[in-house]
Write a structure and sequence with these properties.
Blueprint: H1 8-15, H2 32-39, E1 43-44, E2 57-62, H3 65-75, H4 83-96, E3 105-108, H5 113-119, H6 123-135, E4 138-139, E5 143-145, H7 157-164, E6 168-170, E7 178-186, H8 190-201, E8 205-214
Parallel strand pairs: 2-8, 3-4, 3-7, 7-8
Antiparallel strand pairs: 1-2, 5-6
Length: 222
């Protein structure tokens, strides 16, 4: 089999000075060891406490170290070529979820419009599309926000649930459509629960959820 042709990210690495998003080593957008760390070992995950309505959930890796750095570089610092390896990690989590119904569609959790404008891209939509290509599944941004949502970074479990309740809806009826909700990160699970609620309200058959990384809760988190 002939060797694979280099992608744009590989070609840019040859022309422009780069540092690894995971470990800051000069040379590549993502070095080989960090790419392996990102792939992780997918595992079933349940936040503690687990919010009602959360479907079976798988994560590719824990949100720490290299994984955290790469996710932040893509999401907050505009290193868009990282969507490829992050999408591969998300695809691994989807595979670990088990057998899906034929025709399952990957549905990304939508970012707030203000966040998309500030970042210049919708990170979850990019990751869903990349994972879909890897899995040969369709991805579709069928969820939209119906009201403003506060920044969740400083909110505890109850605050996140209240902030998100009723915040999303499906763009159209989805009677019987098998879907799997995907996102970059899960902390309390409130965002995934709201996404699943909105999809079920539209008639979709929610197969589960998958994320790149899961926050491992620490004592004292509100």
């Amino acid at each position: 089999m002939p060797p694979a042709l280099p992608g744009w990210a590989d070609l840019l690495d040859l022309v422009l000075p780069r540092v690894c998003a995971g470990c800051r080593t000069p040379g590549r957008t993502l070095c080989a060891p960090c790419r392996i760390s990102l792939a992780g070992w997918p595992f079933a995950h349940r936040p503690t406490p687990c919010p009602p309505g959360l479907p079976p959930l798988t994560a590719a890796a824990a949100y720490d170290g290299v994984v955290r750095e790469v996710l932040l570089a893509h999401k907050e610092h505009g290193r868009l070529p990282l969507a490829g390896p992050l999408g591969t990690a998300l695809a691994a989590a989807v595979r670990a979820a088990g057998r899906l119904a034929p025709g399952t569609v990957l549905v990304p959790v939508p970012s707030a419009p203000a966040a998309v404008r500030a970042r210049g891209h919708d990170h979850a939509r990019r990751l869903a599309a990349a994972a879909g290509r890897d899995l040969r599944l369709r991805s579709a941004p069928v969820l939209v926000g119906v009201r403003a949502r506060a920044d969740q970074s400083d909110l505890g479990v109850a605050g996140r649930a209240a902030n998100l309740a009723g915040a999303l809806r499906a763009r159209r009826p989805l009677p019987g459509l098998p879907v799997l909700v995907v996102d970059d990160l899960v902390t309390t699970g409130a965002t995934l629960v709201e996404a699943c609620r909105a999809l079920r309200a539209a008639g979709a058959d929610v197969q589960g959820a998958a994320v790149v990384a899961a926050t491992m809760r620490r004592a004292g988190f509100r």
